[in-house]
Amino acid sequence: MTIAKTALHRRGLLKAIGLLVAAPLLLSTSITGAMAQISEELIAAAKAEGSGTIYTSIDPTIMANVARAFQKAYGIPVDIQRASSSALAQRFNAETESNNFIADVYYSTDRAFHDESGGNGRFLPVTELAGYAEWPAEAKDETSIVIGYNPYSLIWNTQLVPEGLTSWEDLIDPKWKGKVMLTDPRIGVTSNQFYKMFREIYGDDFLRKLGENATYSPSAVPGIQQVAAGAQAIYAPGIHQVAVGLLDKGAPLGEAFPEPTISSNNIASLVATAPHPNVAKLFVSFLMTPEAQAINNQDGWSPIEGIEGTREMPQTVDIDPEETAAEVPELLQLLGLQQ
User: Fold this and answer.
1) Which CATH number fits domain 34-149+264-316: 3.90.550.10, 3.40.190.10, 2.40.170.20, 3.40.50.261?
2) CATH 3.40.190.10 at 153-262, yes or no
3) Is the peptide bond before 24 cis (omega within 30 degrees of 0)?
4) Half-sphere exposure of 145 (CA within 13 A, CB side)
5) How many CB atoms lie within 10 A of CB 17?
6) Where exactly are the transmembrane stretches of this chain (predicted)?
7) What does the mean pLDDT of the chain come to?
């Protein structure tokens, strides 16, 4: 696995356990404004289609704000259809196989699904979109664009854990038995990459102890909500945008970014069978504009420099989703779960 770094103080540890230390994740590209490059012809064609549908697993508050900004910019409403990554993929595949075409844009954190769907022709090339040429090379491929980074965090209820947490190793402290909630590794590949990272860094016994402490949630949104409500003390892997939304409502949450971590990236693709293909192109191009980047990545992490209110990335680990998928039975066994 590959390590991307924004801080060097853990390099010795990573070398000691045999991990590859790579160059820092580059957040150095600046965009002069994809919006200025969007053609009037595309805007007119999108307006003629009237509306669009976005399938997404991204935080609902963020998506509502993006949809409002898009409609304000172009006068085109989009219907946001949100579900967990696994449920969204199942729905999309079922609809595609039954020739029931609804989605125009697929915008999720499921890197493996984007790779698979790009490879089998269900997603179109994005290389001709406005803003693509200037977008950072490490944040794009032929059929997908990384719109934002989501480094996984450690989240806790400050009333139940007043001393706070600083390390992934806090998750296996016996005093938190039954009070640690995790994303269910049987749900999807992205969370399994998190557990594979633990196995690589800390070994099998860490996962066994983690399983002894854990309860499970189908996704981060309801899980972090339970921690905010005091039903559980700790959540991992945390999603910062979810925590921010709850903090804005006064939830008693603390958050840390132990290193290394992995990033569950927000990835956008064009659906090959889109009923509104021009709306799809316009929407994904809009996601690359500074305006949309500020909304998508508020108090978060943008692939480009100069976006107001964004953060510096913590050290991250790149875990291959195909290798992870092959290792799932072992991960579940170590955590004490049945497939």
Assistant:
1) 3.40.190.10
2) yes
3) no
4) 30
5) 10
6) none
7) 89
